[in-house]
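Lab channel / #folding
Pinned by the channel admin:
"Please post every new chain as: sequence first, then the structure tokens as a reply. Keep commentary short and put observations after the output so the thread stays searchable."

First post following the new format, from NK:
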Amino acid sequence: MSSGLGVWCMGLVCVGVMWLTSHVYHLLIDVYEQSAALSDIEYSWFFKLLLNLVGYSTVLLPMFIMYKYLEKINYFDKISNSGWTWRVLFSCFGEPGERLPETAKVRKDESPTREGAQLAFCFIGLMSSYLVWGLLQEKIMTQVYVMPDGSTTRFTDSQFLVFVNRLAALVAAGARLACTRAALAPVPLYKFSYCSLTNVISAWCQYEALKYVSFPTQVLSKSCKVIPVMLMGKLLSRNKYEVYEYVTAVLISIGMIMFMFGSHDENMASGAMSWGGAALLGAYMACDSFTSSWQGAVFARYECGALHMLCAVNAFSCALTAAAHAHRAPPRALLQHPVFVADCVVLSLSSAVGQLLIYHTIARFGAVVFTIIMTLRQAVSILLSCAVYGHRVSGAGALGVALVLGAVLLRLYARARMRTRRRAAQL
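Reply from TO:
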């Protein structure tokens, strides 16, 4: 059998695997929705997560089978560029031999006024987009919507919200990429599937956690991502860390514990629900840490552009979430509610704009300035959420917030001082 014919036969096998996996997924959803013992318990999020993973496998499993088959037969070594089939497979699974040409942009010296205006634009844009995103995220996941007949309903489908957000980000990134007319990044597309999978899982856990913990708790937990990142680097890459990094990590942990025990929310009355929220936040931090680490590895190896990364990851994320939502009924009643639709649209737009501004801020002013802006945003988000939604925080909880934010700023200051000393020593 020729390699070309074998690829077509394997393509049919992959289609069959996709259909079979999708059918199994549909059956599992029916069992879950008809079983009150699974859908009504406090740990139902765990079964939802397992269902999501089965839904994602309808896309990932056929891709994996095709990748392993092409690798086994050395397809790209045996066959040269011979048509659209080869080009499609090479863009998905081939390893390019050439990198993007380095186009160093020479930036003219800007006046302090112009540079200050750029910084103000980034600061106001990031603060505005993510404050709006945070408020609407909490509203959609925790508040009730009054229907025309007077009844009330809650939105519970976190997967739908992830899909809408990723679709808006894909459109925004694709439009921006088209405007720049940049060449395609020499990265096999399957490389983006790893961080896309952890990205959608972390986003789903982030939304689902709001059913169990307060929004201030969720926001503050993001500061603790430094801990799993350090653990992953220590265990997998044998990274070494400075004393100040360990100290600030401990301070962040202590501050987070103080805040969680100093929070008084009705949705944390149940111990099981509190543990469920903690598990979801832990899964969020672990997946988000992997996402950033994998993206950093792709940037380092292929010199992929930020917009290429944003566009490709969101394209995969749309495919995964669409596959996981294909056999679930959309929230039809809420989709006819104008307030809910407006909330979803503004939430998605603010998220997409925020992602574009993240890359622009890092490229223009560096990661340190960006981290300081986002740290301030976390503080304002917590205060705004407490003011709007009435979260009660004790004195110990407020001290915990201050301790976490202070530890983050201390970490940035110590890192900057150490870099300055190293540069001075090299001169």
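NK: Residues 111-426 form one domain.
TO: also worth noting, The longest helix spans residues 3-34.
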